[in-house]
Design goal:
The chain is an alpha+beta fold. It contains 29 helices and 13 strands. Helix 8 packs across helix 20, helix 9 crosses helix 10 and helix 10 packs antiparallel against helix 13.
Amino acid sequence: MPISTALPTDNATDDLTTEYAKRIIRQSKVAEMKAMLDPNIAPCDDFYSYACGNWHRQNPAQLLRDIMTDTFQVISKGFDRRLQRLMQVGKMKSRLEEKVQDFYKSCYQSDRNDVHYKLAFRNIYREYGEFPVLAGDEWNSSDFSWWRTVAQIQHKYGKSIIFDVKIMQDIKNNTINRVYLMPSDDEKFSKSDILNILENAEVAENLENYLGLSVHLARRTSKQLNELARTLMEGLTSNGDAIEDDLMLYTVSELQEKYSSHLNITEFLGIILGQDNVPEHIYVYGNNYVNNTLMTLQDTPSSTLANYVLWQLTQDYLLNVPDNQLTKWCTVKSRKYFDKLVDHMIYERYRSAETETEVHNIWGEIRSIFRQHLTGDKLDWISNKTRTMAVEKLDQMKLFINAYDNENFEALYGNVTVDKLNYVGNVQQLLMAQAKRHRDRLHKSPAAPDATSITTYTPAYNIMDNVITIPVALLQPHYLWDSKYPQALKYATLGFLLGHEMIHGFDNDDDETWWDQKSRYEFEEKRKCFQAQYHEYKYGGTQLPHNSQQVENIADNAGIKLAYIAYQRWLEQQPPETVQQETLSGLEMNSRQLFFVAYAQLWCDDVQSMFKSTVAASDDHAPGMYRVIGSLSNFQEFSWVFNCSQQARMDPEFKCAIY
């Protein structure tokens, strides 16, 4: 990470514009990159291990903290440190910013042993009944309906338990909104035996601390709750690689008849959305999940179900964090509940018009190169009809920096009351406001899922709107690129990421409206090459999943090629004195080698060895090492830059390519 604190100061303000400061910043980047390199590994044998071989020494994964570390996590934590400093000593610029700071203070001052906290915590769940494990023989199962209770909770707090009712654009028609019945976001239990043991122990400890259960009763209840959660997760199966493969549109009356022995779906939706807002049609995600879930719940004792539902409700109000981690934890919570406002207010404090111009310029370069490929003879496997429609789609694709400049923050948070002394009440208020905003989507123009809720530190492509969004956390100075660094670093990181997301608009042939039969056949034949290549890679002792779509790998392979071409073109247009600045003193490599090292170090990571197969199986992206090895072994220019022999592992005879 950049060592800006080493720079001389002037009146307590760092002056980063002097030549001395620029040299220090460049030397800091050299030290950072050099610390990750393992010079004992030959680049042509294993470029990932060469570029990232010592990452684990600087950023080790830890069993009881981060089971995985990577570059984007470092960037995200850097953003959180900015927020933490602002909350502690910064000056707020508006009443809304003061609300964020008051929320942070309420969190920081909370104590789970405080009588006021205990009372507020108890009132949260008692609105929906008592825990059977606390009530004992006095608990009456006839008073409990799991589906009415989870519907009431989602209506009030937006908290999804077992099922989630979402309001989003129609996946097939972005001019209208639809209601979706989805699995709950809470069903995220691990398939790892070690993690399951740790989860059981953590829940048992929380049951002791927050409900006052005995050690024996807490362990038994924890086991019941987690076994139910894992059974629900195991029932979640997929019919294909694309979300469309798992969605089916039903009328509510069809679902009413289909599931009448388990729940009243009309009443369920009416409680969540309001009786007047029950739609005629609804998408159901994962028929198997719904059926498996309802059968599981039918076989589960009512007392276990009630304990599970109420315990899930309480999760947003727990304070299970060590005292020495409280400042970081409260920072993360502040960012979670004021997501858009926090992104905006922090970004405004380091915003740079020069950086934003750079982002749009490099986007224009990447898009222009791909357009030339589409209109030239390079991609001769695409028919003229498909080619024309692809160019039209590319020309209409937009790029936005997610700064939320046009967001009405007053409408989002103006009516939310924040009390510096009531953390539980503050979370309640924020969740209730969020739930209301979600319900209001039914009566508003269709909008894509909010990028903040999806990711806050990596770019994303929205297929519905044909838009790429760049999170502001990525634009923090001195991380991936900077005006004081060689431009190779900017093209290898930002350029690649933009190219990768752009290709997501063209990385599958499911849209029959513009992929003709010939182009689809050629695409499929080329895709099979990636499928075979990546399935051969082993991670954690097991082969990577036999993913049939390969969209992420296709985007990686095309993205790095486009970024490199853009850098080459930029380099050729520069005067000699600029070209001389494209190397870093202390790193014995030329500018093109620096480009590939910067790209590889974007994907440095460390994963606890016992979890590697789990990580690989749960992510559509290949593990970091194979994002590097796979894409660069398919790129002949890489082998030329590093003078790899034809027998080198990074220069195989057969290479996969689509774009």
